[in-house]
C-alpha cells in the first residue's frame, strides 16, 4: 500500500508544475499610463471636467486657457495631491480642494463647491476627481442651483461628465430639491 503522504505530495507537484509553466508563459502585465486628461469634457466655455490628470495634463490645461483647478478628491485617496498642487501653482494655476467622498456625500461640501465655483464664474476652471463620477454629481447640483438649468438637462450633462452612481444621482436630486428656489 502506498504512503498517503507521498501520494498527496505527488498530486501537489502534479498541479504545481502546470501552474508554474503557465505563469512563465504568460506575459507580464504592464500598467497602462494614465492619459493626460482622462474623461475630459469641456462642459461650458468656462468649465472643464475630468478625472485625475496624468503626466502632462496640467500643462495641457494651461494651453487650453484654464486658470484654476478645483480638486474634489479626498485627502486619504492614493494620489499625490501635494505634487499636483505644487505643479499647478508652478504653472500659474490657482488650486482649490473641496474633498467630496462618494460613499458619504456631504451636502455641506456640495454647497461649498457651488459657492467656490460661483465665486470663480469669470475664471476658466477645471474640476476633477478620480474618474468623473463625483464631478458629475456636483456639476448637476451646480447647473440646476446656480445656472437655473432644468433638472433633466443637468442630469444628461452630469452623465456625460461621468456620473454613473445611482446613489450619487439620488444625492444630487435631494440636494437640489432642498435648495432650489
The number of helical elements comes to 7
- According to DSSP, the number of beta strands is 5
Please, how many domains?
1
- Quote the beta fraction: 5-15%
Q: Architecture, CATH level 2? A: Alpha-Beta Complex
Q: Write down the CATH topology.
A: Protein-Tyrosine Phosphatase, Chain A
Largest sheet: 5 strands, mixed
Order of the strands making up the biggest sheet = 1-2-5-3-4
Instruction: Estimate the mean pLDDT confidence.
Output: 87
**What is the CATH class name?**
Alpha Beta
Order of helices and strands: HEEHEHEHEHHH
Ends apart, CA distance between termini:
86 Å
Q: Determine the structural class based on helices, strands and strand pairing.
A: alpha/beta
**So, the CATH homologous superfamily?**
Protein tyrosine phosphatase superfamily
Low-confidence stretches: 4-28
Helix content: 40-55%
Structural Rg: 23 Å
Description:
With 181 residues, the chain is an alpha/beta fold. It has a single domain (41-179), classed as Protein tyrosine phosphatase superfamily (Protein-Tyrosine Phosphatase, Chain A). 50% of the residues lie in helices and 10% in strands. The protein has helices spanning 4-25, 57-63, 81-90, 107-119, 133-145, 151-161, 166-179; strands at 41-42, 47-50, 68-71, 94-97, 125-128. The chain has a 5-stranded mixed beta sheet, with helices on both faces. Helix 3 (81-90) links the parallel strand 3 and strand 4 (94-97). Helix 4 (107-119) packs across helix 5, helix 5 (133-145) packs antiparallel against helix 6 and helix 5 (133-145) packs parallel to helix 7. The chain is globular and about 40 Å long. The termini are far apart. The model is unreliable at 4-28 (pLDDT under 50).
